[in-house]
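Ticket #4471: structure export looks truncated?
Reporter: QA, pipeline team
Priority: medium

Steps to reproduce: submit the single chain below to the structure queue and open the exported record.
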Amino acid sequence: MKKLYTGLLAFLLIHNINAQTTIASEGFENGYSFFSVFSGAGAFQSGTLAAPGTPAGASFAAQGTYGQVLAPPTTLQSPAINTTGFTNIQISMKVAAFGLTAGIGLDQLDRVWISISTNGGGFYQDILYVTGATTNNSNWAFTATGTATSAYPTSTVVNAPSSGINLNGPSTMTITNLPSQNNLLVRVSANAGFNERWIIDDFKVTGDLSLPITLLSFNVRLQNDHPVLKWEIATPVDGFLYEIQRSKDGNHFETVSDVMGDAITTQFGYTDPAGMEGNLFFRLRMTDIDGKITFSNILRLSAGKDQVALFYPNLVRSMATLRLNEIDTKGVTGRLLNMNGMLIKTILIKDNFQLIDLSGLSPGFYLLSLSNGKTFKFVKE
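Actual output as written to the record:
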């Protein structure tokens, strides 16, 4: 178990360092999986450009088998893209410029551009243009080494370097600094003259995942003499690791199993195969894909019937759990006292299962005295 976890964590750390998460993508593989045609028309083309086209022998695809040939004027429309929970969000797209007959190429007035809407499509801002050369008739393949970059919301125009075949033509378009929101919209548009074509491929929206694990619920109950744990998270994210940890004293925990999250699941469960004897404590050790570790609150399960009033753990770092039955909860207040009997603060008990933040206390011994007569001793680390 330890070796497996170490390997998974190492993979997640490496994955996060070396590549962003793909939020949305379009490969134009003989059809649309993401975009739709807003206006104009486009064709999906495989193979290579035949002579006398320029650059002859250039591939119609930057990746996969097909690329999108934009028959100008054409505009492609994306659905709403949810970029919430991501940082360093950017768009990248491959672009090539083909002349279908000899001596034909893209001119300065021939353009392919990416537009962004951040208000649900009410307004699109043109962010990045790539054009032919100012001296006209320029061509390049997907393998050209040039780039065209703009940081949203700045609008940028990048011209091809020169007429003829450009080995350093701007074949990669990138827009950075995109906002984190739930309805980002993108349009890709093109215009060109007769027998001139823009070819696009490998469109991606990527970002660094910053979404924390948010537990909506976490509980445990006894079923057929076995502890059954269930928890629910706010947002499913592929690669989150959940370790189920068990303890007999509420302080020293060991991992008994783990569950890997995916991009769909929000509700999880685990049945402890060990039989129930005495008191057991459970918590979740949760690891984000960037390696950040957080812990859930601690749950206590007793084989006996005396679960009327519980306070745990006895050795508190920051959060403690108070559990009462519904009758005990009505009108109950708690007085937090130091060992000299001095009142530190009064706590209103609102629920029969309540988390109490004790992170502001200085290290030492304390008492939690409830108005229903119950008292709990604990130590603050």
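Status: closed, not a bug. The export was complete when the record was re-opened. Leaving a note from the reviewer for reference: The first helix runs from residue 2 to 18.
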